[in-house]
Amino acid sequence: MNTQVHTQSHLDWLEAEAIYIMREVAAECTRPALLFSGGKDSLVMLRIAEKAFRPGKFPFPLVHIDTEHNFPEVIAFRDQRASELGEQLIVRSVEDSIKRGTVKLRNEEDSRNAAQSVTLLETIEEFQFDALMGGARRDEEKARAKERIFSFRDGFGQWDPKAQRPELWDLYNTKVHAGENMRVFPISNWTELDVWQYIEREKLELPNIYYAHERDIIRRSGLLVPVTRLTQPRDGETVEKMTVRFRTVGDITCTCPVESSADSPASIITETAVTDITERGATRMDDQTSEASMERRKKEGYF
Length: 303
Description:
The protein has ten helices and ten strands.
């Protein structure tokens, strides 16, 4: 008689919850989509989708709202992974919104993160999506911690933190009227440490900028700013070559690496276990000011 007992780890529980949520979206929503940027959280979401729906095709397309200020390594990895899976990838660009005149920036070098809201709402309208799943997590930022797993958006795509629906006993209210939609966060209860432990367990491939590498940087406002075509040194700033890695990736103009020699999931797990600074707090220039606060952007339609 086989007396072996299988004990579920906390990752098993988190994975099972995410699979349940993703299947709930597929069952209850008419036109869902999975946001996929090629970043680590969206790659975890992709693995969850594989476990939820393979060997069949995903019952939704992959969607990326591209600022065209992204790191080329991440965009190349996005396209490679979508192609490997044979899934539909819909890309819509902030640049196209600028050309249409629906997005106006003060200058070319501004962060386009906030402008993604407009392109996202235009994409929802174009494809009539009623639910968008994304890899946001509550531990990232205080505004994200206010959201439910099924986060209701009104007919203007706006979010009201005071009008969230209750989610007692994992029962989700997915009802939306025409023009309304849901933003759904299957890994909302995960932490950065959980994500890296899952990446290690599942042996997930990531863009190489998540691991330690040498890069030219400048020190600005307490952050390490990568030297790129969009982020050039200012008068009086000194370019240094450092060994760094990115904890999160996004618009080049506001995403910064951290000094690190961690070159594997195991070594990143060790670093993450002892840090007391959140991903966004350590790496996002546009989260440093109240003017660009996450909550304000989310109320305007940001994911």
